[in-house]
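Structure tokens please, single chain.
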Amino acid sequence: MKLGIVGLPNVGKSTLFNSITKAGAESANYPFCTIEPNVGMVAVPDERLDKLAQMYHTKKITPAVVEFVDIAGLVKGASKGEGLGNQFLSHIRETDAICEVVRCFEDSNIVHVDGDIDPIRDIETIKIELILADMETIEKRLEKAKKMLKADKKYQAEIDLLGRIKLALENGMPARQLDYNEDEKAILKEIFLLTIKPLIYIANISEEQLTDSENDENVKKVKEYAKAEKSEVIPLCVKIEDELSSLEETDKKEMLEALGMKESGLNTLIKKSYDLLGLMSFLTAGEPEVRAWTIKKGTKAPEAAGKIHSDIQRGFIKAEIISYDELIKEGSMTQAREKGMVRQEGKEYVMQEGDIVLFKFNV
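Here you go.
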């Protein structure tokens, strides 16, 4: 799954990307320093893997991953090609969800593209450009659907859906805020709207704001705005996160304690992003490898088996499953089996977060 890091120029996007991926994306105090999108695969923090590795004396640990893309800064008029608008819109169209960085800190040394700090204005700027781009997509799709309707009445459902979305967009409402049935969701998969993508706001604050971010006026404004559209906000000091990402684990823990933080803001962001996409992990464990496998919530056992290998899905017989918490409580798989804690599940079993699985198959 792919998440796009977006925002206006000079809000901290590339610095955040550097912190997350340690990929060294260029970061500079001028707009559009990130012209081509930088891409990095990021491990989803998961302490369970380390504990399982100790239990099984594992040789290899493979965590679940999320792909982050650092996308060029957007300005007013992007939907009409201003700045790097066309590139911005095409790159964001390829992502599954959006992490929008919003600048909430003052710093005279870092130029703001609009001259002063106003997080809601910045959010509105990006929202309007994405809405305008979606309006153009909807108009083209409507025109095509109306032509096809003459030959096939099934296109009426698409016309009705597009009309409903168009009305919402005209009223400044992103497509993600509407409710859709399963048939409509299937149609939407072929349209590639920008405002349908789930979104997390990252309120980029200073180190001084970090101690009381809940009461910071700019952060509160972003949270109120996000609440109205059912989005999440993560207050995060990108500068601090960049420093943390360069430290060894022991030094990182000391710095977090000194800052009064339980974990880095980046870890929170990665976990929230994973959840935002409706993803979860099931686990496999043994001496060769302990691994987290990414699946959509609601996935049944055979489809989960297919994530490991298509042959396992094709020849699926059953799944032997125990939850992570139950295994840790029992202390070993042997003890868990003796107590009858390991369940036998069939093809209709819906996988749960933290299931430890051994698939039985025959091909």
